[in-house]
Design goal:
Helix content is 37%, strand content 22%. It contains 14 helices and 22 strands. A hairpin with a 5-residue loop joins strand 21 (414-420) and strand 22.
Length: 454
């Protein structure tokens, strides 16, 4: 048996290609995934798509062979964004496999798997058993399946437009940096018939990422977009990651809009159309998010970080929308899957309705100062968290504590969350306070606890 522990993560499969992920491993995973969905979903076909990475063609072919060997059919939808793959899974009511390494460098590739109707497949929902079967290898089972090709971009565009009132859009000037990723395919198609003046940066599909990494959470990768927004006087900038399921906003002053503020803004738009609904936010989001949800007549529900948790709670609560600080935005009417382009259109609808600039629209939401995520390497993350938790009662006697996802300490005027990384000996600190001075002081205080005595 081979050991695939290095590439099987909590929510997906990802590794160096070649090296950790190759054609043989892709075939094994294809067979294992086919066996899994045949047993759990009673599925007879799997939808397969890929991003623009050069290694994707061979990996898809081998994965497909593995699926066909198990007697299931494959619907190959070709080059797509991850949210288009999720759409295909919902539209065709079939499990899906997306070959992508998202924001990772060119030498990586991987898979995002889902059940029928974009149901999440993670470590606790099938990925562990898929890994075991891939490691041991499965023999062909029954007569082989067949492979079909289908294009769904037009249907996807219609679906994305259904989340807004297209006629209500005003002629905004938008810059979209697709970073040579799959946004270069979907963004022009979505904006083609809208009254929006769209300017594209790096729309060519090129998995070698010749201009800058497709990772918009890193500030250095936003510089070109910020410059272009300023140069042409754009109303907003959109930064997509490699597989185009995430988006980050740049306002007309070329300032980054946090994922929390975007979540609050999208929640306003969704609740304006569907009042009284439940809206989810992960526990790293700013306190402004639940405040805005309540102000709009919605019910906020706090969740753990991660798409499998968000989707599970969405199913339990019937929530109409969910947002994460990391730029993932989930929609009930999108089979509870995330989509950057849908979130972007909801923001443009809000801007059109307000007849104001994005910065003015966001000004009432800028109520707190956040530290951003601060990573610290420690020998034993779990023990460090326990040590800090033991000091809370004496150090911050009026603070509340919860363990929904790591340690969260809420002292009223400020709060922090401390979570261990799933893959590295790191602690991730997120802290928010009422002003910048308080934020800096409290960050220094908590970091001193993490690092321990000198």
């Amino acid at each position: 048996m081979m050991d695939l522990g290095a590439i099987f993560k909590a929510y997906d499969i990802r590794g160096l290609c070649p090296g950790q992920l190759d054609a043989d491993i892709a075939r094994r995973i294809g067979a294992a995934f086919a066996a899994h969905v045949a047993a759990t979903d009673d599925a007879t076909r799997i939808v397969v798509g890929r991003d623009m990475r050069p290694t994707g063609t061979e990996l898809v072919a081998s994965f497909t062979d593995g699926v066909l060997d198990q007697g299931l059919d494959v619907v190959d939808i070709g080059l797509v964004s991850t949210d288009l793959l999720y759409f295909a899974s919902g539209h065709l009511d079939a499990p899906g496999a997306m070959f992508t390494a998202s924001h990772n460098p060119a030498e990586y590739n991987g898979l995002k798997l889902c059940g029928a109707r974009a149901a999440p497949v993670g470590a606790d929902t099938g990925l562990a058993s898929i890994r075991r079967d891939a490691e041991s290898g499965l023999a062909p089972a029954g007569p082989p399946g067949t492979r079909h090709h289908q294009q769904l971009l037009d249907e996807f565009v219609t679906h994305v437009h259904s989340f807004i009132d297209v006629e209500a859009l005003r002629p905004l000037k938008v810059v979209a940096d697709t970073a040579n990723g799959m946004g270069g395919l979907v963004v022009p198609a979505v904006f083609a018939d809208l009254p929006i003046e769209i300017h594209l940066l790096y729309p060519e599909l090129d998995g070698t990422f010749p201009n800058h990494p497709a990772d918009p959470i890193q500030p250095e990768n936003l510089v070109d977009l910020q410059r272009r927004v300023t140069e042409i006087g754009a109303d907003v900038g959109l930064a997509f990651d490699g597989d185009a399921d995430r988006v980050f906003l740049i306002d007309e002053r070329a300032q980054l809009v946090s994922g929390s503020l975007t979540t609050a803004l999208v929640a306003q738009g969704i609740l304006a159309r569907q009042p009284g609904q439940t809206v989810l936010h992960n526990l790293i989001c700013s306190k402004v998010v639940p405040e805005v949800i309540e102000e709009c007549g919605g019910t906020p529900v706090r969740t753990r970080v991660g798409h499998s948790f968000i989707k599970s709670v969405m199913a339990e609560t019937g929530a109409v929308f969910g947002g994460e600080h990391s730029g993932h935005y989930y929609f009930r009417d999108n089979w509870r899957a995330d989509s950057g382009i849908i979130a972007a259109l909801v923001v443009l609808e809000r801007m059109s309705a307000s007849a104001s600039t994005l910065s003015n629209l966001l000004a009432p939401l800028r109520r707190y100062v956040a530290s951003g995520e601060i990573n610290t390497q420690v020998d034993d993350p779990a023990a460090t968290i326990e040590t800090i938790a033991a000091t809370v009662a004496t150090r911050w006697p009026n603070a509340s504590v919860d363990w929904l996802d790591g340690l969260t300490v809420d002292a009223g005027q400020w709060w922090f969350n401390l979570r261990p990384s799933n893959t590295e000996p790191l602690l991730r600190l997120n802290l928010e306070a009422g002003d910048e001075a308080m934020c800096e002081t409290r960050v220094a205080e908590v970091r001193a606890l993490i690092e321990g005595p000198a």
